[in-house]
């Protein structure tokens, strides 16, 4: 289907109403769930031309793993392909050579690339339409919003939070999945033209490469501290109870491949840490724990709470998580006025640069990198020294070119200067 992009200059109330797209142009193809069907689909994709649109569906709110439960691909000449990696036991061997040296088009690629890598699917080149929208200075960059703005179509949505581990997949879910790649190539072309018009296409290519080559995020230190509502707890003993319950829940969730919140809600963990029940009767008297599923696991939760109570004082968790970065910025003025002055000057300068180039300031330079640089600046604060630091920390060349001079000046700022 040929889709023409709407000019960004025409976006506004006088633009025609978007066309609601409820069905893929070529219909919904059969799900590829056998080795023979996969081989045929791979051959069709290899014979296609141009970039390939790629998307995945996960079951984040239902399953512990972040695996892909459906992979959608679309390429000119091949049409749309829906692959069920579960039915194929994750063995998608014909696909990598079929897509070799092909540009992949994804929306919010960093969300999909890890589960694709688990299937040995890795792009040689990448175009991220969400990131393109951010670099173009668009305030809203969801797939539906960009498709409507740039192409004049409105996508039928509604199943993004569905349990994609369910089998068989309902037909309306497959329609939704196919539509997610239906217009990605046309959107890629429109966004490429827009970035070229703004003089940002080279910036985008650098960003796409950074996303493509990004290392997997390291495991979080003390992930149990992210339990919702934990801020209401004050004593180390209560924190130990949260940690014990969180770890017990995580084991169950991982073994059963269930989302942790479906095993035991965060709110119940915090409530149990506050109530500190000593017996099963005390535990099941608490909301949620009295349910049939939780009664079956009552001994597990009690065992975790008892283990937390038996800990020696020096085994209890610290009141706050270990922190290797700067303190909260609202404390800088008291703790290090010079650092506060540097940060104020840097933020002001970066905001002006971002505004001038119609960019989100967080895409200009990572806020954490700016904070760390201002808290402990390099010994050499010259343009050369700051360039080396930014490059070493992963900043792209376009970012360095735009920011290094102003950041170097900001690192020389003093409280007296910023007050003026």
Automatic annotation (TrEMBL):
CDD domains: RNaseD_exo
InterPro entries: 3'-5'_exonuclease_dom, Exo_C, HRDC-like_sf, HRDC_dom, HRDC_dom_sf, RNase_D-like, RNaseH-like_sf, RNaseH_sf
SMART domains: 35EXOc (SM00474), HRDC (SM00341)
Ranges of residues in domain HRDC: 235-315
GO molecular function terms noted in the UniProt entry: 3'-5' exonuclease activity; nucleic acid binding; nucleotide binding
Region entry Disordered, spans: 1-28, 312-339
GO biological process, one term: nucleobase-containing compound metabolic process
Protein name: Ribonuclease D
């Amino acid at each position: 289907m040929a889709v023409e992009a709407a000019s960004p200059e025409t976006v506004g109330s006088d633009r025609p109403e978007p066309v609601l797209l409820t069905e893929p142009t070529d219909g919904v193809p059969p799900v590829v769930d056998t080795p023979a069907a996969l081989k045929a689909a791979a051959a069709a994709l290899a014979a296609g031309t141009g970039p390939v649109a790629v998307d995945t569906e996960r079951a984040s709110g239902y399953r512990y793993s972040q695996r892909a439960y459906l992979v959608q691909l679309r390429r000119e000449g091949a049409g749309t392909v829906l692959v069920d990696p579960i039915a194929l036991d994750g063995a998608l061997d014909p696909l990598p050579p079929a897509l070799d040296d092909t540009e992949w088009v994804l929306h919010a690629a960093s969300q999909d690339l890890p589960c694709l890598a688990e299937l040995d699917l890795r792009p040689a080149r990448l175009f991220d339409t969400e990131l393109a929208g951010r670099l173009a200075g668009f305030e809203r960059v969801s797939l539906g919003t960009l498709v409507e703005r740039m192409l004049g179509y409105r996508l039928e949505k509604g199943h993004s939070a569905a349990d994609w581990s369910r089998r068989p997949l309902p037909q309306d879910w497959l329609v939704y999945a196919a539509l997610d790649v239906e217009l990605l190539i046309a959107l890629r072309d429109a966004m490429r033209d827009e970035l070229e018009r703004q003089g940002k296409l080279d910036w985008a290519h650098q960003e796409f490469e950074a996303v493509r080559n990004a290392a997997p995020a390291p495991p979080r230190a003390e992930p149990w501290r992210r339990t919702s509502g934990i801020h209401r707890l004050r004593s180390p003993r209560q924190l130990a109870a949260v940690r014990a319950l969180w770890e017990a829940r995580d084991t169950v969730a991982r073994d059963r491949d269930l989302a942790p919140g479906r095993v035991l809600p965060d709110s119940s963990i915090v409530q149990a840490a506050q109530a500190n029940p000593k017996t099963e009767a005390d535990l099941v008297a608490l909301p949620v724990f009295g349910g049939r599923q939780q009664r079956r696991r009552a001994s597990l939760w009690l065992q975790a709470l008892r283990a937390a109570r038996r800990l020696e004082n020096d085994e209890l968790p610290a009141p706050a998580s270990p922190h290797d970065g700067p303190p909260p910025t609202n404390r800088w003025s008291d703790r290090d006025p010079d650092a506060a002055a540097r940060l104020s000057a840097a933020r002001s300068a970066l905001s002006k640069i971002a505004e001038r180039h119609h960019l989100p300031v967080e895409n200009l330079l990572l806020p954490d990198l700016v904070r760390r640089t201002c808290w402990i600046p390099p010994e050499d604060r010259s343009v050369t020294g700051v360039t080396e630091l930014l490059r070493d920390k992963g900043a792209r060349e376009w970012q360095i070119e735009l920011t290094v001079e102003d950041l170097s000046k900001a690192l020389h700022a003093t409280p007296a200067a910023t007050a003026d």
